[in-house]
Amino acid sequence: SGFMAWLLHRIKVRPFHANKLYATELLSVLLQQNPPNQILLGELDGILALLTAASHYKRKDPQGLEEAELIENVFDCLVAALSEPDNQTLFLKAEGVELMVLTIKERRYAAHGALRALDASLSRNG
To answer: For the chain, how far is it from start to end, CA to CA, in angstroms?
Structure first.
C-alpha cells in the first residue's frame, strides 16, 4: 500500500512532469485485472486523485506526446479501477459522471477517455 500511495502522491503534482507520466504508467499496470489493487486504490482516495488529474484536461489538449500518454494512462487507471463496485460508488460521489460528461462536451483530446470511463462507471459488476 505504501508504493501505491506514493504513486498517487506523484499523480497529484499539478503541472506535467515526467515522473507523473511514469507514475500513471506503473499504476495502470498495477490495476489491470487485479481486484485487490483496485480496492486498495479506492481506499487510498485514488479515484479522487485520478479525477483531479483528468480534470486538468477537461478544457485543454496535451502539449506533446508524453502529456497525451499521461492522459491515456489516467483514463486507463480509471477504467480498470471502475471494475470494482465500491470504486463506482466513489466515482459517483466524487461527481465523476458529471466531470466525464463535461469533458465529452468540450470535445478535446480527453473526450474519448472520458467516454470510456463513463461507460465503465455505468457497467454493473458483481
So the answer is: 24
Q: Write down the pTM of the prediction.
A: 0.93
The pLDDT of residue 93 is: 97
Q: Give the Cα separation of 89 and 9 in Å (integer).
A: 22
Enumerate the domain spans of the chain: 2-122
The larger pLDDT score, comparing residue 123 to residue 49, is at 49
Query: Which phi and psi angles does 16 have, rounded to 5°?
Result: -65, 140
**Cα(38)–Cα(25) distance, integer angstroms:** 15
CB atoms within 10 A of CB 98: 10
Q: What is the mean pLDDT of residues 47-71?
A: 94
Structural contact between residues 70 and 62, judged by C-beta atoms closer than 8 angstroms: yes
CATH superfamily placement of domain 2-122: Leucine-rich Repeat Variant (1.25.10.10)
Q: What is the 3-state secondary structure (H, E, C) of 30-61?
A: HHCCCHHHHHHHHHCCHHHHHHHHHHCCCCCC
